[in-house]
Amino acid sequence: MQPPNRWCPHATVATVVVDQDRYLMVQEIDRVSGAVVYNQPAGHLEPGESLTEAARREVLEETAWCVELIGYLGVARWVGADGITYLRHSFLATPSYEVSNQTLDDGIIAAHWLTRDEIIALSSQLRSSLVMSVIELHRQGNVAPLSLVLDS
User: Fold this and answer.
1) What single string gives the DSSP state of each residue in the chain?
2) pTM for the predicted model, two decimal places
């Protein structure tokens, strides 16, 4: 049991889904500002769920794509505009197949396959600097094996 008044960051996952030179991005409405932003498929870890299960679930719910996780891009601490601290676990994946009848999560406008240059052109609309940071980690080959993610 957690002591009262103990601070805890929010655990989230994000997945860089790559297909040749394109990345699967989510166009969504930011719940705090109401602005339209772009992000990797991402969301909160749910009770009883492993990090890898959360990553696959969020991609499906936000893009209608099933993916194969192939690597781990690390963890980052990020403080949102709302003052909440997040620990964002980023994964690397390849697309397996699209689910044609999948309804996307509330707040999701659309999923787009974009090149790195197209994402850079949207830099003022990225949810955070972490979006490009994890893409660059992938491009530089800084990918750890999934075996480093211990989900018990």
Assistant:
1) -PPTT---PEEEEEEEEEETTEEEEEEEE-TTT--EEEE-SEEEPPTT--HHHHHHHHHHHHHSEEEEEEEEEEEEEEE-TTS-EEEEEEEEEEEEEE-TTPPPPTTEEEEEEEEHHHHHHTGGGBS-THHHHHHHHHHTT--B-GGGS---
2) 0.94
CA distance 52 to 68: 10
Dump pLDDT digits (tens) for 72-97.
999 999 998 788 999 999 999 999 99
Dump pLDDT digits (tens) for 93-116. 999 999 999 999 999 999 999 999
User: Which domains does the chain show, CATH number per domain?
Assistant: 10-143 (3.90.79.10)
